[in-house]
Design a protein that fits this description.
The chain has 13 helices and 12 strands. With 345 residues, the protein is α/β, with parallel strands linked by helices. The chain has 2 domains: 275 residues, Aldolase class I (TIM Barrel), CATH 3.20.20; 58 residues, Alpha-Beta Plaits (2-Layer Sandwich). The structure holds iron/sulfur cluster (2 copies). The site of one iron/sulfur cluster has 13 residues, from helix 5.
Length: 345
């Protein structure tokens, strides 16, 4: 894992912390493992971990058909989150006050809102698109998807996960560090990731939280710098801008140092903090990072990565049609290469 990060060759597919649709996770896993992803970020749910493991096995089987020399088995990361973090909330529609205008149905990226308007919890990823378009502000509300981490996380690790991510984009520092300590103790030898954005944190608070996270995790720390959470639907520079900007804040605080003779910041030989880009990542993320001189150790792609293969994933002949799987993994492969160059297989 560390050598993938050190060589900036880590591509993580984000299936969604709140995505408990095991079949969808399995199919996404097949396509993106064939495409060269080395990380799969999934909900902390044993059924979903099992589905992801099956997807990896299937991808290795299919790789022989397609003559892809896969050798590294990708890492499974399970995601959990603090109450208030967008990634782990579920949407509820109040049918008594709902205007039945149906505006929310087409904007849901996971088809979690059927025509009956009762949100399918397993599919809801908490993105907020539905409440953003709803004409009234008091019809849709969100509830935290409560989980008993102390028992759930060991069960996920026993099922095959090797890494844990904590979505910690809320203001309460003390509560977060308690959860982070627990995450670290549950997985003492594997990498652990904290996903942070700046919706509630100033740059200074962001840096402070990274510092505290590093004190507990040491070199196992990954920070997922989440530009604008779950906003990566479009493939343009503006969508990915905040991911790069957030990464730049982290680099300047941890991974760069002042060259006094020229009074300029330069990158340290060894990164102090492993950093993944997320939150608006798309096929232009690495281009913008390169143009702005922002280095990163890997890319995490969710909304955009899922969107470009949705038609293939939803096809009822998915497992039987090799041409369909090839079409899907080639679409995914273009995205992987756009982010990390030719992947290490
Ligand atoms: S639009 Fe987003 S928050 Fe609303 S139901 Fe769909 S996934 Fe959940
Ligand atoms: S957009 Fe709001 S009012 Fe319209 S159907 Fe959806 S929840 Fe009901």
């Amino acid at each position: 894992m560390q050598s993938l990060l050190d060589s900036s060759k880590y591509f993580k597919l984000v299936c969604g912390a709140g995505n408990e649709d095991a079949e969808e996770v399995k199919r996404l896993t097949v396509l993106y493992v064939l495409a060269g992803a080395k990380g799969l970020d999934i909900s902390a749910n044993v059924n979903v971990v099992n589905a992801c493991m099956e997807g990896i096995d299937l991808a290795f089987n299919f790789s022989k058909e397609f003559d892809i020399p896969l050798s590294i088995r990708p890492f499974i990361m399970v995601s959990v989150g603090m109450p208030g973090d967008h990634h782990v909330r579920k949407s509820y529609i109040n049918l008594d006050t709902c205007l039945k205008c149906d505006l929310c149905i087409p904007v849901c990226p996971t088809d979690a809102i059927p025509k009956e308007l009762i949100v399918i919890k397993d599919k809801c990823i908490g993105c907020g698109n539905c409440s953003a378009i709803c004409p009234k502000s008091d019809i849709i509300h969100y509830e935290h998807n409560n989980r008993e981490l102390a028992s759930l996380l060991p069960a996920c690790l026993a099922a095959g996960a090797e890494q844990i991510e904590l979505h910690a984009a809320v203001a309460d520092d003390t509560a977060i560090m308690q959860e982070w300590q627990l995450v670290s103790e549950v997985n003492p030898n594997g990498h652990i990731s904290m996903c942070l954005d700046r919706l509630h944190l100033s740059n200074f608070s962001f840096e402070e939280r990274v510092r505290k996270a590093k004190e507990i995790a040491g070199d196992r720390l990954i920070i997922q710098s989440d530009g604008y959470p779950m906003s990566g639907g479009e493939d343009d520079f503006n969508t990915t801008l905040q991911a790069i900007a957030t990464a730049d804040v982290l680099n300047k605080a941890f991974n760069m140092k002042l060259r006094k003779s020229k009074n300029v910041l330069i990158y340290k030989k060894k990164n102090e903090v492993n950093q993944l880009l997320s939150g608006g990542t798309n096929s232009l993320t690495a281009v913008l990072a390169d143009q702005t001189g922002v280095k990163f150790q890997g890319s995490s792609l969710g909304t955009f990565a899922r969107k470009i293969v949705k038609e293939v994933v939803d096809d009822e002949n998915f497992y039987q049609d090799l041409a369909l799987i090839k079409k899907g993994y080639l679409i995914a492969q273009d995205l992987v290469i756009a982010n990390i160059g030719k992947p290490t297989l």
